[in-house]
Amino acid sequence: MANPVHQDCLGTWLNLHGYNKCEVCGRSYSENAHEHALMLGLAALSLFLFSTTFMALPISVGRVFFDSVSFIMLRFGLKHDDFCGFWIGCYFMRAVYVSVCFIADHIQKGRINLLLKSVLIWIRNGLIFSIWISVIPGLLGLLIDLMIIIPYRVPPLNESPVCFLILDWLIGLVMLHIWTFMTMFTPINWFATDAWRGKLERIRITGINRLPLMWLLRDVIGSIVSTLLTTLSIPYMLVTLMFPLFGLSRSINSAVERLMIWPALLALIAVWFTTKLTRDLVIYLHQLVFNERCLVGERVDNLTEE
Q: Phi/psi class of residue 297: alpha, beta or left (left: φ > 0; alpha: ψ in -120 to 50)?
């Protein structure tokens, strides 16, 4: 039962402000003050439960996410942060809410076929996106690690090089996005061939949802993966199959691989890039001089015959 002192205080406060009777039932406020106190208590309890749930549920989702990637965090010495976990949980819950609303809306309107088509597009895009951000950056980062980072380390020469896959993946992801941005959104054509610029331009203009899946897997993703695998496998096969024929020890083979083979591959790529850049520059200068001396296809006006 509510405290009568609190009821008298509430009734006195209502009487002072001119609220003597309820406009609906005609009862005096002093008679049902305990009902108002109960309503205020329930409102405060509801607000407390809502705010607690709003804070605790996203943090719990974020902690589950951190637990699932704990092996990566331990690798880099990172710790769980409830602030980051809260925002990760909020984004995850928002994605679930949007997906549920989208599915419920299509079911209510009877557009099951469109819903199934959208789900298939999501699955297809998820497959392509997972390969694009996992396999390709991993191979690219491994290639950069073998050509640039490992040759400059100073472990004993008789030890095999150790690759940190997570670090290689991060390096490859950054380099892949830089290459994609430079190729698609800048006029610089030094970092890709005309064929690759055409592919990326088609993806940007048409949109990934309206492009054939086999074309994306074969001509875009498959082409990059095959190029990276070929670049990685040729030096490895050279060291594994040909060097043992010379009768050298394993430590010498490892040192030659680390200090000669991969830097030589980097030098070949640099020479090829420089040659391509020089060729494009010579062609551009030749066309520029030729167009100044011989105008082909230009219309000449204001000519008078003497």
A: left
